[in-house]
Amino acid sequence: MAGAFGEIAERLRRSTVEVRLRGAPAGGSGVIATPDGRIVTNAHVARGDASVRLWDGRELPATLLARDARRDLATLQVPASGLPAATFGDSGALRVGELVMAIGNPMGFIGALTTGVVHALGSLAGFGAQSWVLADVRLAPGNSGGPLADACGRVIGINTMIVNGLGAAVPGNAVSAFLRRGACGFSLGVTVQPVRLEDRRFGLLVLKVEPGSPAAAAPLWTGDVLTAAGGSAFRSVDDLHTALEDAAGLIHLQFVRGDRATTREVAIRLGQAVAEAA
User: Domains of the chain, with CATH numbers?
Assistant: First the structure.
């Protein structure tokens, strides 16, 4: 049994890569998603010019294909073929107490393995309605973007952060959906923060507008507060992302500006989501 587990762990190690950022003292991890060089990692790991180091020591330049900051996922492409791609399992079939393992590159330890059990499944307070896999695996800086796998070596999550001492991973089914979607979908080009208006309405305060983005062309300004899309009021950040996903390239946004006494509306022609998702 120990030998079989060791073989499973070694296969998973070969499907795990180190993601290095140019000029950064530390990077993160990633998972080989396809034999032709597509890598999935965290969006917060793929923040600039990157390279990928494979299990055999080769270091290859990486091109950013898609990035979803909301779900903290990104895909990179490296110029290689015949790579040992990981197998993705069904995270919907996970049960609390199930044995899992995580592999990554924490603090310079390449291919470090840690094991534990699934602690909880579902949403996290303060992180919206998105689901997470919480496991009592020992993670450290450098594990981000690496695989969380079941006892058979099937990837059922991408390790993202540590919450109250537990590892939190994006569920594998969400990762698989992101990989299928690729760079499809639409981008608004803003960074937002939830706020409450004086009349107690929920809003999304625009903190940043990306130059050249659809939001900049509208124009939306830093300081605007988005309140609805197509007449449907926002109740969370997820509502904006849902509206973008449902948009057929054109979104009607309601927002307030300045003294925030008057609601305005703008129709925005969206661009393809290659950078930030919203």
Answer: 2-77 (2.40.10.10), 91-181 (2.40.10.10), 186-272 (2.30.42.10)
